[in-house]
Structures are given as structure tokens and as C-alpha cells.
């Protein structure tokens, strides 16, 4: 049996990371860690407490004292901060924007990354986000960088928003997508970038199922190669 590894998927908003990450975790029987949900939960608490999103010191302290948990199976992950369930509340456009702002603060990232390492340290985990293969687990077993064209990502976001009953235009969603890309890529603290060894996949013309199958194939191959090379050497 291959051992239980650490799989990372990084990429821009709307590239399909969450859907793919969830499905992979399900098929592998792994824990699914939506790292963006943790920045979102913290942003929710900051807004709730009236903390200014530019106040790096207060936000760093907030990140250090807050307890963010992800629970449930990959298909029904519940997100809580200090025991309060915020699963639905963190999916609004307001929180998307606030999360991308607070994620630029170094102290906030330090605290959240420490919590993520703790949660994933025993392996058997699929993480998805912006820095999971570059910063959180640079020694991950398999790293993916999932991408898609901005128009495709904005279209997917729009469908999600509309499914949740929010009436937004395509132009507005595209503008927000590009704005977020810019912030996530240009910030000095752990910007979104592709790890050299990450496998690059553009999902614009692929179905979710195709992406998942392709990734599973690579993961199984890598993990069983590692297992057999270890048993040869031991
Ligand atoms: O993946 P998402 O849209 O839920 O992420 C929300 C914000 O959190 C995103 O704009 C950038 C930030 N984020 C991050 O900086 N690092 C991660 N590993 C995950 C998300």
C-alpha cells in the first residue's frame, strides 16, 4: 500500500482547486484542507469586531489568538472560528475581498500557516490554496498548480454566486477576479507562484473529472514509487 502523503494544489481563484481538492481527498480517503477558508474565517471575525483591515498589528494578534477549525468530510466541511460556525457566512464577496487583504499581512500568514502545518503533519491530506506547496509544505509528495483563463474563472465564480442567489454581472465578477489575482500575486508575503516542481495544469478546457483522474494517476504513481524505493533501500 502506498503511504499516506501530502498533496498540494495551488492556483488562482476560480481555477477549480476546491472542487478538485475535495474530490481527490474523497477518493484517497484523505483530509481536505481548504486553506483559503481559514483566511476567510479570520476576515469574518475582523469585520465582526470592527478591526480595520489595514491594522496589521491588531490582525496579527487576532490571528494568533483565534482558533480556526475545519471539520467534517471533504464534501461537507464546516469552518468555525472560536467555536462559531461561519461556513456559509464566509462565502460573500465582501469576505472574499477582506480575506485577500488580510492575507497580505505577514504576521497573519505566520499564524495561519503554523495551524495548517499542525493539522497536516501526519500526512494523508490534500491542501489547496495559494502557498501550500511553496510555503506550508515545501516538501509535499505531489504538488499541482491548477490554472484557467481569467474569463473561465470569472464565469465559474459567477455561476457559484448566482447559485447562492446573488445577482452579479459577469463584468463585475471578472474585474474582481483580476483584482484578486493581482493582490494574490503581487503581495510581498508568500505571493501566489508556481513551485518549480509543481505539475502545471490548465483546466480551461478540461472537465473536473478529467482533472481529477489525471491527478489521481500521478499521485498513485508517485506514492507507490516512493514506497517501493524505500523498501528497496531499507
Ligand atoms: O481560495 P479562496 O478564494 O477561498 O481564498 C481567499 C483569499 O485567501 C485569497 O484571496 C487569498 C488568500 N489565500 C492565501 O493567501 N493563501 C492561501 N493558501 C489560501 C488563500
Tell me briefly what this model is.
Helices cover 53% and strands 15% of the residues.
Description:
This protein is of the alpha/beta class and 234 residues long. The chain has one domain (6-227): P-loop containing nucleotide triphosphate hydrolases (Rossmann fold), CATH 3.40.50.300. Helix content is 53%, strand content 15%. The chain is built from nine helices and eight strands. The strands form two sheets. Strands 2-6-1-7-8 form a five-stranded parallel beta sheet. It has a three-stranded antiparallel beta sheet with strand order 3-4-5, with helices on one face. Strand 4 (78-81) and strand 5 form a beta hairpin. The longest helix is centred in the C-terminal third of the chain and has 26 residues, at 208-233. It is globular.
Provide the spatial order of strands within the biggest beta sheet. Answer: 2-6-1-7-8
Helical residue percent band? 40-55%
Rounded to the nearest angstrom, the radius of gyration is: 18 Å
Give the strand content.
Answer: 5-15%
Broad structural category: alpha/beta
Overall form: globular
CATH superfamily, by name, is P-loop containing nucleotide triphosphate hydrolases
**What is the averaged pLDDT score?**
93
Number of strands: 8
Major β-sheet profile? 5 strands, parallel
Count of alpha/pi helices: 9
Report low-confidence residues grouped into runs of 5 or more.
none
**Topology-level CATH name:** Rossmann fold
Bound molecules: 2'-deoxycytidine-5'-monophosphate
Which sequence of SSEs, written as H and E, runs from N to C? EHEHHEEEHHEHEHHEH
Q: What would CATH call the class?
A: Alpha Beta
The number of distinct structural domains comes to: 1
Name given to the CATH architecture: 3-Layer(aba) Sandwich
Ends distance: 16 Å
Amino acid at each position: 500500500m502506498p503511504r499516506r502523503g501530502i498533496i498540494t494544489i495551488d492556483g488562482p481563484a476560480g481555477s477549480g482547486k476546491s472542487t478538485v481538492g475535495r474530490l481527490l481527498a474523497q477518493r484517497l480517503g484523505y483530509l481536505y484542507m481548504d486553506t483559503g477558508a481559514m483566511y476567510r474565517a479570520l476576515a469574518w471575525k475582523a469585520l465582526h469586531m470592527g478591526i480595520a483591515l489595514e491594522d496589521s498589528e491588531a490582525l496579527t494578534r487576532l490571528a494568533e489568538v483565534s482558533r480556526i477549525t475545519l471539520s467534517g468530510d471533504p464534501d461537507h466541511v464546516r469552518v468555525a472560528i472560536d467555536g462559531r460556525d461561519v461556513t456559509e457566512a464566509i462565502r460573500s464577496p465582501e469576505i472574499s475581498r477582506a480575506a485577500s487583504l488580510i492575507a497580505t499581512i505577514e504576521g497573519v500568514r505566520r499564524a495561519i500557516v503554523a495551524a495548517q502545518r499542525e493539522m497536516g503533519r501526519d500526512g494523508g491530506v490534500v491542501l489547496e490554496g495559494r502557498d501550500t506547496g511553496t510555503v506550508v509544505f515545501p516538501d509535499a509528495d505531489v504538488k499541482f498548480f491548477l490554472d484557467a483563463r481569467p474569463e473561465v474563472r470569472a464565469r465559474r465564480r459567477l455561476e457559484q454566486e448566482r447559485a447562492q442567489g446573488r445577482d452579479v454581472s459577469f463584468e463585475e465578477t471578472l474585474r474582481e477576479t483580476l483584482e484578486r489575482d493581482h493582490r494574490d500575486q503581487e503581495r510581498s508575503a508568500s505571493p501566489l507562484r508556481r513551485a518549480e516542481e509543481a505539475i502545471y495544469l490548465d483546466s480551461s478546457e478540461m472537465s473536473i473529472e478529467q482533472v481529477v483522474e489525471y491527478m489521481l494517476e500521478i499521485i498513485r504513481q508517485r506514492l507507490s514509487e516512493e514506497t517501493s524505493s524505500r523498501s528497496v533501500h531499507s
